[in-house]
From TrEMBL:
Lineage: Eukaryota, Viridiplantae, Chlorophyta, Pseudoscourfieldiophyceae, Pseudoscourfieldiales
Cellular localisation: Nucleus
Domain of life: Eukaryota
Organism: Pycnococcus provasolii
Molecular-function GO term, any one: double-stranded DNA binding
Presence of the UniProt keyword GTP-binding in the record: no
Protein name: Transcription factor Tfb2 C-terminal domain-containing protein
């Protein structure tokens, strides 16, 4: 519709096929990624692998784990917001138990 008259005479389409293919590919890549609300748990103690594993396992048990990284230098857990309160309480209880057991008797 907006093509130059000579272009309309030479081509069936006003946009070359390679350009329209590139646009289609770009659009499909653009729509591949989606976002959703989430809560990030990060800054885990690199020495305390057990805590990270317990939190990740609890998030899985609550069916709310979205993503996690087990890379030792950057451990994190991303969870669904609906389990945030329960997971936060789990972390608090676990840390309270750990610190209480570390005290001399």
């Amino acid at each position: 519709a907006n093509a130059h008259p000579r272009t309309r005479l030479r081509h069936d389409a006003s946009v070359p096929e390679c350009v329209s293919d590139a646009i289609r590919l770009w659009e499909s890549e653009r729509q591949r990624v989606s976002s959703e609300p989430a809560v990030l748990y990060a800054n885990f103690d690199p020495e305390n692998v057990q805590e990270f594993d317990a939190i990740r396992a609890h998030a899985i048990a609550l069916d709310g784990l979205i993503h996690c990284s087990t890379d030792a230098s950057n451990r994190f857990v991303v969870v669904n917001p609906r389990i945030h309160d329960a997971l936060r309480e789990f972390v608090r209880n676990r840390r309270a138990q750990t610190s209480a057991s570390a005290l001399p008797k």
